Amino acid sequence: xxxxxxxxxxxxxxxxxxxxxxxxxxxxxxxxxxxxxxxxxxxxxxxxxxxxxxxxxxxxxxxxxxxxxxxxxxxxxxxxxxxxxxxxxxxxxxxxxxxxxxxxxxxxxxxxxxxxxxxxxxxxxxxxxxxxxxxxxxxxxxxxxxxxxxxxxxxxxxxxxxxxxxxxxxxxxxxxxxxxxxxxxxxxxxxxxxxxxxxxxxxxxxxxxxxxxxxxxxxxxxxxxxxxxxxxxxxxxxxxxxxxxxxxxxxxxxxxxxxxxxxxxxxxxxxxxxxxxxxxxxxxxxxxxxxxxxxxxxxxxxxxxxxxxxxxxxxxxxxxxxxxxxxxxxxxxxxxxxxxxxxxxxxxxxxxxxxxxxxxxxxxxxxxxxxxxxxxxxxxxxxxxxxxxxxxxxxxxxxxxxxxxxxx
Amino acid sequence: xxxxxxxxxxxxxxxxxxxxxxxxxxxxxxxxxxxxxxxxxxxxxxxxxxxxxxxxxxxxxxxxxxxxxxxxxxxxxxxxxxxxxxxxxxxxxxxxxxxxxxxxxxxxxxxxxxxxxxxxxxxxxxxxxxxxxxxxxxxxxxxxxxxxxxxxxxxxxxxxxxxxxxxxxxxxxxxxxxxxxxxxxxxxxxxxxxxxxxxxxxxxxxxxxxxxxxxxxxxxxxxxxxxxxxxxxxxxxxxxxxxxxxxxxxxxxxxxxxxxxxxxxxxxxxxxxxxxxxxxxxxxxxxxxxxxxxxxxxxxxxxxxxxxxxxxxxxxxxxxxxxxxxxxxxxxxxxxxxxxxxxxxxxxxxxxxxxxxxxxxxxxxxxxxxxxxxxxxxxxxxxxxxxxxxxxxxxxxxxxxxxxxxxx
Lengths: 408, 408
Fold this sequence. Notes:
The structure is a homodimer.
Chain A: H1 7-17, E1 24-28, E2 41-42, E3 52-53, E4 57-60, E5 67-74, E6 89-93, E7 105-108, E8 114-115, E9 119-121, E10 131-132, E11 143-145, H2 153-161, E12 166-170, E13 175-179, H3 200-210, E14 215-220, H4 225-236, E15 241-245, H5 256-261, E16 266-270, E17 274-275, E18 281-285, E19 288-293, H6 297-315, E20 322-323, E21 326-330, E22 334-335, E23 341-349, E24 352-355, H7 367-370, E25 374-378, E26 383-384, E27 389-394, E28 399-400, E29 406-407
Parallel strand pairs in A: 5-6, 13-14, 13-15, 15-19, 17-23, 21-24
Antiparallel strand pairs in A: 1-12, 2-11, 3-10, 4-6, 4-7, 5-9, 8-9, 16-18, 18-19, 21-27, 22-26, 23-24, 23-25, 25-27
Helix pairs in contact in A: 1-6, 3-6
């Protein structure tokens, strides 16, 4: 019989067994979006590199003098010899321009009392105002970005500012996707009215791609145990991760498990007390991680999302691999079976969450996915009440048709 | 002087002036992740395509008979001639297998009282149980996915299930990124200790890419007005969107605005009462949208994120282009200037939000970006109190180091 472990237990068995890679590559920063750093990035220079003006305005030595002679203009990028500045003098200075020694304050044009080409008259202003001091943000030698960090546009901004263009990143796992079911047609194949299309390979491949990984679609597993054993044996030396869908339950046609075992599989579990997604097996063959997901498109997608993606991130050396959740108020009451855990689809919008079709959809209903943007994982629940605050895991909440995101 | 419009007004002027494209292309579904549909997708077939078993079990005609003779086994994918089933008979049937006419109920193996190769003994079970009826999910001719929808893994799942592999998607805008500042060095160039690297082009290009668009880095705008007018004239016929950074304030070296105006620019605004990001101009030259962003890396990134990305989505025919926000409790009090709107960086984790460095970072501090994962936009605020509920816009909240996302 299938195991009866909880969804939480299944999640931790996947995560705890996923050992981060130590293989890395060198990569040019422009190609690095979505990669995970295999090294701490150390600051090469102070930031700012020199004290500079935060505004277009006038720089001066703060003193009693409020009428100041304009002696010079300094633009961003100007290089100049040091010069002496007197207490009744100032320089016109542009945003980002280097502040000369002796100047301790910048006043923006619009705060001056009077501005002419020759002189300005200024009010009282705090010493140090509008100057960004050398090194106030970053000191050379600081750890800028930690090993395991995902390279986002924000990290690229920081690395660019330091002139760092080559980084070490972890090599991501090579992933193979197999499917079972000789009855399945590929979506591009001719099919009669009652033939069924292969959904799982394509939904899981695109889920993997959206998460920054690649996967090869290997095709359909052969229809005998002997051939399957051989087939898997060939793949396991070539791939770090093998994902299968279907054939893992206890029906007569389900020999996938046996074929993996004959290849040395050590399973972490086979069967989870979750709805949907019960017939799921995860384990390892030598160094190859195996996710044997259910045949139902909805179940396989949900387990790939909740169990596999976090494990793939950990295998890739990412330091962040737990889904971040958002809190949301439940919009309408629904019931679940308290003997199982549940992954339930719904729509998150502007702080509220609504279950899809009152949770009356089946695990074969693939349209539930594209009609939802998030899920909740329920443990030991009977009724989920209206107004209850839920932890929601988003998968596609970035944008909506209309929202008022201003705090006013 | 610069305009003094609010951030909300700036956002709506961008969005309202962004006219969706009507150009489309045909694309194979495997390359379509992140594209926007240029047509409604119509269901080609019912789902399920035939009534089928939701479980591995036994199918029968629900009656008084509780001891049933096993007459046949039906696997998923089996095709068979119609046959008669009697009230005291049943078939072994696998998940997904077609349910023969006359059979109205399936019982899973584990719910049977007795199971042998020849017969089974079953308890009372509801008629219709564990059968997925033909067409109960989708009826042929239904609108499956609407025009303007982003193609996600969930949509790919649905299209695959319908055997739909070619779709029309909108052609995304061609985007050019220019930068100003002849003083800037590219991150890969030799630079002396005090020279500054170009950050904006690279942060904005990667932000654009992360959002599913492409952009060409054109390089640095020439250093005279005449050359710049010519330069922009050449680009405007080739690009749908031009993004510049820097040179849009009223400093002496800022002739970008004039160069755009001489090319027919009609600006929607020049200047926003927001901190950071005041010197920003958005407008249109014939059919080319222009985003002239500030020179400060933080300011330009924030306005690119908040104002430009939504407009790019709308230009691309997306039906969803408003940021979805999440509610979060503010972790520590901070103050802002009530005369301006503010975009404030911070970290969202598990329902709480914490401002970065107590909002004491400057607009030149690019490390504020990679140390944050979200932002809030504040309007007319003075103090943001601890415990206050904020609307937070995420830019990188997908994963965290540890979280308990189970609802238990």
